[in-house]
Amino acid sequence: MKTLAGPQSGAQGDIVASRNRSGQFPRQRVSPHNPRTAAQRRVRDNLRTFSRLWNQLWSRTASLSELRQRLRVLAVLTIDTFLQRPRGEPEWLKP
Q1: How far apart are the first and last CA of the chain?
Q2: What order do you get walking across the sheet with 15-20 strand by strand?
Q3: Which residues pair with 89 in a beta bridge?
Q4: How many other CB atoms are found less than 10 A from the CB of residue 72?
Q5: What is the value of pTM for the model shown?
Q6: How far is C-alpha 94 from the geometric centre of its chain's CA atoms?
Q7: Which residues of 73-84 are buried (b: 16+ CB within 10 A; e: fewer)?
Q8: Is 68 helix (H, G, I), strand (E, B) or coil?
Q9: How far apart are alpha carbons 13 and 28 in whole angstroms?
Q10: Which of 11, 26, 44, 50 could form a disulfide with 16 if both were Cys (CB 3.0 to 4.6 A apart)?
């Protein structure tokens, strides 16, 4: 239920002042639910492993890859330069 009172924030007992695009409203405080089930732990472990392997891949790619520029100056390929490069392979990238 939307309230018409002035701006509110904070909590009083188990009631918390909340706000969304429709306006402010009071709601009951709830504690976050983190069941730590076997399936949830497995998903988090998989994500952690994937993230570690992705970072290793990029660090190895960045240390091994060098771009040729027009002035024959070498630049290291990092994930930032890879993601910011234009679509298609420019002429100065070709060996």
Answers
A1: 66
A2: 11-12, 15-20, 23-28
A3: none
A4: 6
A5: 0.40
A6: 32
A7: eeeebeeeeeee
A8: strand
A9: 9
A10: 11
